[in-house]
Specification:
heterodimer, A: about 120 residues, mainly beta, seven-stranded mixed β-sheet, four-stranded antiparallel β-sheet, about 50% strand, globular, B: about 110 residues, six-stranded mixed β-sheet
Chain lengths: ~120, ~110
């Protein structure tokens, strides 16, 4: 089945620890995105990548890092510098990236991160 | 001010009612995306449109580019339609901006 997988679904970490969230897609999409969702707020863009080995900061990139070594994978690291990391994190992908407009995004099931 | 505003924030309806959720935006867009988020958190794409109207089953989405407004309609609502409906716009820089969502509860 084609789709986007995120793991784990729930993640607990102690304050001060870095943690990496996985996102894998087998849709052959060029573009991948990481969003953060907090109660009462719309999804906010953390990082996005239009092609392999390239990524750009979104609106709330501070305290996060990403890599895009393979087309299928776009892991997100939540570092200890992120002041309020507890949130629901969603990964998405989209066909075309820079070349093709107006393609919809497909979302993974999300990872709920709780920092204790 | 958010680039995307949705109304209402919360909506409760009786099964069978016709439902309308509104989305207004303030930026230039190339397309608008309606999404559905269930209690478990997963998000499903409903429609992506840049003009006119699209229909899929009991769902209808319309957009008026001049007025910067879109509506999502649900006909003959059912309890399984209960979810959060999110409007997102794709700006001319190829980035998405999201509304805060409309939480819909359909009572049997």
């Amino acid at each position: 089945d084609g789709g986007i997988t995120q793991s784990p679904k729930y993640l607990f970490r102690k304050e001060g620890q870095n943690v990496t969230l996985s996102c894998e897609q087998n849709l052959n999409h060029d573009a991948m995105y990481w969003y953060r969702q907090d109660p009462g707020q719309g999804l906010r863009l953390i990082y996005y990548s239009q092609i392999v080995n390239d990524f750009q900061k979104g609106d709330i990139a501070e305290g996060y890092s990403v890599s895009r070594e393979k087309k299928e994978s776009f892991p997100l690291t939540v570092t200890s510098a992120q002041k309020n990391p507890t949130a629901f994190y969603l990964c998405a992908s989209r066909l075309g990236g820079l070349r093709v407009l107006n393609n919809e995004q497909f979302f993974g099931p999300g990872t709920r991160l709780t920092v204790l | 001010k958010n680039e995307v505003e949705q109304s209402p924030q919360n909506l409760t309806a009786q099964e069978g009612e016709f439902i309308t959720i509104n989305c207004s935006y303030s930026v230039g867009i190339s397309a608008l995306h309606w999404l559905q988020q269930h209690p478990g958190g997963g998000i499903v794409s409903l429609f992506m449109l840049s003009s006119g109207k699209k229909k899929h089953g009991r769902l209808i989405a319309t957009i008026n580019i001049q007025e910067k407004h879109s509506s999502l309609h649900i006909t003959a609502s059912h309890p399984r339609d209960s979810a959060v409906y999110i409007c997102a716009v794709l700006n001319t820089g190829n980035q998405f901006y999201f509304g805060t969502g409309t939480s819909l509860t359909v009572i049997p």
